[in-house]
Amino acid sequence: MSGSSSSTELISPALLLELLAVRGGQEFRVTACVQQGRGRRQQVREVGLYQFTVRGEQVQACGPSGQTRQLSRAGYLEIFGGYLFRDAQATGQMTDLGPLFSSV
């Protein structure tokens, strides 16, 4: 990572999945990044904005193209395992309001 003061902490796909699972049904927008190079020449390159939501064992992913896919947690890790994420922000969208209104 560069030492730029404007950069934010990068989080792993597994850590993002944990964050999403704890906040089940709440959509988060994140910037997907890839690391390139080694040592001093290592750079982080942004590849696009994604929106993710976890509902139970399903991960809903919407990419820069606007296409939405339903994935298992294992499928999410398989597809996004090579990425790092930054700038996780709640969008205010809730896809599953059941937990807010149930007596469980």
Question: Features of this protein?
Answer:
104 residues, alpha+beta, five-stranded antiparallel beta sheet, 21% helix, disordered C terminus
Number of helices in the DSSP assignment = 3
Q: Output the helix-strand order.
A: HEEEEHEH
Beta fraction of the residues? 35-45%
SS elements, strand count: 5
Largest sheet: 5 strands, antiparallel
Mean of pLDDT? 84
- What gap, in angstroms, lies between the N and C termini? 44 Å
Portion in helices: 10-25%
Radius of gyration (CA) equals 15 Å
Structural class of the helices, strands and pairings? alpha+beta
The main sheet orders its strands as 4-3-2-1-5
Basic shape: globular
Low-pLDDT sequence parts:
1-6, 98-104
What number of structural domains do the residues give? 1
Walkthrough of the structure:
There is one protein chain. By secondary structure, this protein is of the alpha+beta class. The chain has one domain (13-91). 21% of the residues lie in helices and 43% in strands. The chain contains 3 helices and 5 strands; from the N terminus they run H-E-E-E-E-H-E-H. The chain has helices at 13-22, 73-80, 98-101, and strands spanning 26-36, 43-55, 58-62, 68-72, 84-94. It has a 5-stranded antiparallel sheet with strand order 4-3-2-1-5. A hairpin with a 6-residue loop joins strand 1 (26-36) and strand 2. The radius of gyration is 15 Å and the shape is globular. Mean pLDDT is 84; it is low at 1-6 and 98-104.
Quick rundown:
The protein is an alpha+beta fold. The chain is 21% helix and 43% strand.
